[in-house]
């Protein structure tokens, strides 16, 4: 088991010093899902939601959140992301929207937290925009799917 790096020698929380790390291409992919009533999904897909294109708003919210992860998660580095992409895949069974975020940069630290934050905020935005018609929605399955680059190399979920 590796030593947690956000603790100093005295056990206090600290921001990791990445100054000596090599600049490499880094990428992370995360996923999550928001379960909803069938009528809510149909309303989104048919473009009949009273608030308009909720998937477009959720996409922008996810991108903005990835760019501001350092403001949301303590001890995260402020990163100059080169790319943030979100994909929304509606699914009939179970009635849901699958969300996938892909974040990239050339830098000294990874982008896992940015990808996870993008998915989280996109799902929360969908919840917020649809809660008037479906308060029982459930956000689930948030996880890292893959990361590339850096000292630890390539990792993929099993």
Which helices and strands occur, and which strands form pairs?
Layout: E1 24-35, H1 38-45, H2 54-67, H3 69-72, E2 83-91, E3 96-107, H4 112-130, E4 138-148, E5 155-156
Antiparallel strand pairs: 1-3, 1-4, 2-3, 4-5
Helix pairs in contact: 2-4
What does it look like?
This protein is α+β, with helices and mostly antiparallel strands and 158 residues long. It has a single domain, classed as Alpha-Beta Plaits (2-Layer Sandwich). It is 28% helix and 29% strand. The protein has helices spanning 38-45, 54-67, 69-72, 112-130; strands at 24-35, 83-91, 96-107, 138-148, 155-156. A five-stranded antiparallel β-sheet has the order 2-3-1-4-5. A hairpin with a 6-residue loop joins strand 4 (138-148) and strand 5 (155-156). Helix 2 packs antiparallel against helix 4. The two termini are 19 Å apart. The mean pLDDT is 90. One of its GO terms (molecular function) is cyclic pyranopterin monophosphate synthase activity. It comes from Marinobacter segnicrescens. This is Cyclic pyranopterin monophosphate synthase. Belongs to the MoaC family. It is an enzyme of class 4 (lyase).
CATH topology: Alpha-Beta Plaits
- In DSSP terms (H or I, runs of 4 or more residues), the helix count works out at 4
Report low-confidence residues grouped into runs of 5 or more. Answer: none
Give the name of the CATH superfamily.
Answer: Molybdopterin cofactor biosynthesis C (MoaC) domain
Query: What general form does the structure show?
Result: elongated
Distance between the termini: 19 Å
Strand content: 25-35%
Which structural class matches the secondary elements?
Answer: alpha+beta
Give Rg in angstroms: 17 Å
In spatial order, strands of the major sheet run 2-3-1-4-5
Average the pLDDT over all residues and give the rounded result.
Answer: 90
Number of strand segments: 5
Number of structural units classed as domains: 1
Sequence of secondary-structure elements: EHHHEEHEE
How would you sum up the major sheet?
5 strands, antiparallel
Subunit structure: Homohexamer; trimer of dimers.
Enzyme class: lyase
Active site: 128
Family: Belongs to the MoaC family.
